[in-house]
UniProtKB/TrEMBL annotation:
GO molecular function, a single term: cysteine-type peptidase activity
Organism, as annotated: Limnofasciculus baicalensis BBK-W-15
Secretion signal, residue range per the UniProt entry: none
GO biological process: proteolysis
PANTHER family associated with the record: PROTEASE FAMILY C15 PYROGLUTAMYL-PEPTIDASE I-RELATED, PYROGLUTAMYL-PEPTIDASE I
Pfam families membership: Peptidase_C15
Transmembrane region(s): none
Keyword annotations of the record: Hydrolase, Protease, Thiol protease
Family classification: Belongs to the peptidase C15 family.
SUPFAM superfamilies, per the entry: Pyrrolidone carboxyl peptidase (pyroglutamate aminopeptidase)
Protein known as: Peptidase C15
Annotated InterPro entries: Peptidase_C15-like, Peptidase_C15-like_sf
The organism's place on the tree of life at top rank: Bacteria
Length: 215
């Protein structure tokens, strides 16, 4: 059984940014081989929730992947961070002038959580931690919209797919010669662990141990 995983990245959004580290990371991942895993790349999504959501959901409906790994840049962070949840209040684009104080003052928030066991996912990884703050910007907006799409009753994803589609969001720090190897290694293991989770879920009656690529 081949596990299909969709990976997404963003464009840049500020003048000083020569590239988006999430897209830089996916360019390195594209060069690697993952036996038993089929990766589809949806790179350089627009930094706009509605635009990014449109491209992502169209690709999900076309591909019907087993899992989705969304990626975004976190310039202030130094390690990979896997986001546990997404909030319904966020700035929707670079033109959205809503302040963080205004966002945080909202009382009727909806919080959606990933179905993936993140404690198990990050166990043993060298430069990856769990985060509970997706940033209140387009990264959080896309994550929220995809989780909402996947978890909504009656969506084409829930009706037509025998295996529930899992989704996580990974924030990527600026890549440097010093951290590149560790980050690529950890992210590769995240891909393999997600695939193993989906494989075990699909074939649980036939597996007595975890696949060889589980670390």
């Amino acid at each position: 059984m081949t596990i299909k995983i969709l990976l997404t990245s963003f464009q840049t959004w500020l003048p000083h940014q020569e590239s988006n580290s999430s897209d830089d990371l996916l360019s390195h991942i594209e060069e690697l081989e993952f036996p038993g895993i089929s990766l589809t790349f949806l790179r350089q999504l627009p930094v706009d929730v509605d635009g990014a959501k449109g491209f992502a959901i169209a690709k999900i409906e076309e591909l019907q992947p087993h899992a989705i790994i969304c990626c975004g840049m976190a310039e202030s962070r130094t390690i990979l961070t896997v986001e546990s949840c997404a909030n319904s209040y966020y700035r929707s684009s670079t033109l959205d002038s809503t302040t963080l104080a205004e966002i945080e003052s909202k009382s009727e928030r909806i919080l959606l959580k990933t179905s993936v066991d993140l404690e198990e996912l990050v166990a043993g990884l060298a430069v990856t931690e769990i985060s509970h703050d997706s940033g209140k910007f387009v990264c959080e907006g896309l994550y929220y919209q995809i989780l909402n799409y996947l978890q909504s009753p009656g969506s084409s994803a829930s009706l037509s797919h025998h295996i529930n589609i899992s989704c996580i969001f990974v924030h990527v720090p600026i890549l440097t010669p010093d951290n590149l190897a560790d980050i690529v290694t950890d992210f590769s293991q995240i891909i393999e662990k997600i695939a193993a989770l989906k494989l075990l879920g699909a074939e649980k009656s036939g597996f007595s141990k975890k696949p060889d690529f589980w670390v």
